[in-house]
Amino acid sequence: MAKSFDCVVIGAGVLGLAHAYHLARRGKKVAVLERHPQAVGASIRNFGMLWPIGQPGGDLTDLAMRSVDIWKEVLDEAGIWYNPYGSLHLAYEEDEAQVLKEFCGLPEARGRRLELLDPSQLTRRFSSVRAEGLKLGLFSPSEVCVDPRETIARLPEYLHKKYHVQFFWNTPVQAIDSPKIHTNHCEFHADKILLCTGSDYQQLYPEAFASEGIRQCKLQMLRTPPLPNFKLGAHLAAGLTLRHYKAFTKCPTLKELIARFDRDLPEYHHYGIHVMASQNGLGELVLGDSHEYGDSIEPFNKELIDELIIKYLKKFLNLDPIIIASRWHGVYAKHPTEAYLIRNPAPGVTAVNMVGGAGMTLSFGLAERAVKALLGESYAD
């Protein structure tokens, strides 16, 4: 016998959970179908950084800030750990310091409550920062740390208890003939079907994405054991990160900085490495990461990438030795030009995907936007 719901969400990663939340709190009867026993993809294989400062201003920054606000409401209600300790970009070269100054002067930086800190201010506030060669730092209070493993594991229980969302694990979707959803267990019926399948986007309606130029991106990451006596104090990033995020592209000195990196650190560009650190509620440092695209992706990690990450990390992290307890990689799908995709591959079916490396940051804001459009609500509602 078929199971009937108002809405069925396919995929229990962060985007799927965010859509389930926004639908259920509007009174919809919601089911989430996940083909694994639990979410195992990119949603649990990241830093846990909610990172508005990386967005390039305008609508995406507004969306990220809205998303972070919703995240906090949800995490508070669910009793799940998070730390709103902000982010710190560190400059150890003059061109890096100049980019930070230029960024603070951009129109999109207004209202972000940014602080430029000199070396003495930095070392007084952040004992985790290496003092040697330090020239300047940029502190932003907007960024939040979550533990993706804990968060993605516990949100389903919260959604079930508070909003009666039903979860069906080990339930791969075989085909969709809207409003029918055929699975290995039974048939589901829903007026509205949402696909939030991440890097598995080709399994259902592959033709809808065939001409988009989507690429897969593999990242390598590391984690230390718990460090109860070491406090990071903020998400840490340094010069390489200025190259990675679009927020800094309007800074005039960025081209000079990139040219220096290409000349002096070519391997970092080849593997798409920029180096950051976060600290979760267990006291573990999460470190990374790299970006290998398309045909470069293979199932085996490269030890050289991990070595390069740790080598650069030692330039700005005041921790010696850096002991690694675990290593892993993740894969996400990325559109070449768009920050995300919302498509309707069939009547009654909406696909929300391709958030790239900003899935944790944009998820709850993007899901709110998609759900409002789906239900005919105004963005301003």
TrEMBL record:
Keywords: Flavoprotein, Oxidoreductase. Residues 6-370 form the FAD dependent oxidoreductase domain. GO terms for cellular component: cytoplasm. Belongs to the DadA oxidoreductase family. Its cofactor is FAD. One of its GO terms (molecular function) is oxidoreductase activity. Pfam families: DAO (PF01266). The keyword Oxidoreductase applies. This is TIGR03364 family FAD-dependent oxidoreductase.
